[in-house]
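Aim 2, interim progress. The first record below pairs a target sequence with its C-alpha cells.
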Amino acid sequence: MAPEVTVFIDYQNAHLSAHERWCDYGEPVHLCLIHPLKLAECLVASRAPGGVLKAAHVYRGRPDPRHEPTSASRSDKQAAAWQTDPRLHMVRRPLAYPRDFGQVDCYEKAREKGIDVSLAIDVVRMAIRKEFEVGIVFSRDTDLLPAIEFAFDQPDCHLEVGTWEGTSELRLKYRKMFCHKLSQDDFHAVRDPRIY
C-alpha cells in the first residue's frame, strides 16, 4: 500500500526561488505564483516509492491591509481559493513593517516573522506524535535544519526535502536525506495562472 505523504511548504521561499530561477526578467512576483496543492502533488508524484498526498501545510506571511491593501486583498483571495481542498492547511502570520514604511526614504521591505518557526514547530510536533508516515519539507531555509534533523531521527518517521533544480538544497551533516529537485517543467506545471 502506498504511504501517505504530508508536505510542508515554505511558500515565500519556494515562490521567490522559482521566480528568480525561471520567470522572465521584470515579470511581477505576484504574476508568478505557485499553486501549493499542485506543488505538493508534484512532489508526491516524483517519489520513486510512490505515495498518496494526505495533507499540504503551507506557511506564508500576510500583508497588512492598512499598509498594502492591494497585496492583502490578493493574498486573502489566494488563500481562500487554495483552501477549497480540505487537504490544504494554511498558516498565515502578519508581515512585520518598518516604522517608516511607505515614506519616500524607506528602503526596507515588509518581512515575514515567525513563518519558519511555525513550520519547524509543526514538523517537530507531528513527528513526535507520528502524524505523518512520510514528510517532505519544501524550502531552502537553513534555519529549518534543527527541526528537520530532529524529525529525521524520530523512529518510524521518514522525512525528505525538496527544492528547485539548480538552487541550493537542505542537507544533514553525516546523514543522507533524499532531496526532490523539481525542474522548470515541474514549475510550469504547478504555476497558478489565475489573476487575483
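The second target in this work package is listed in the same format:
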Amino acid sequence: MHAEALSLTGDIDRLLGARTGVAGAQMAATLVYVGLRQDQLHTEITNLLPCLASRAAVSSWQGRLVLRLLASETMTGKTDLSRLLNSLSGHEVPRVWQS
C-alpha cells in the first residue's frame, strides 16, 4: 500500500510558485512501482532523468520505487512521462497519449 498526504495553508499561490514548491508547474505526476524489478528500474530511470525536459526524481525504499515529475508545460510532461513508461514497459503508450 502507498499513501501520501499533502496539506497547504497560507499563501498557496506563493508556495506553488516557489522553486521549492512546484515552481509554477502545469503538470505533476507520481508513479509508484512495486515488483521484482525495483532495483533494475531504479537504475534505468536514474539514467533517463538527465534526458528529460521536466524536473524529475526517483527514490526507492521499503519495497517500492517512486518517481515524481514536474513539468512547466503539460505536453512536455506528457512527452517525458511517455518516454519513461515506454522505457520501463518496453511497449508504446496507448495512442491517446501520443502527441
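The longest strand covers residues 64-71. This observation will shape the mutagenesis plan for the next reporting period.
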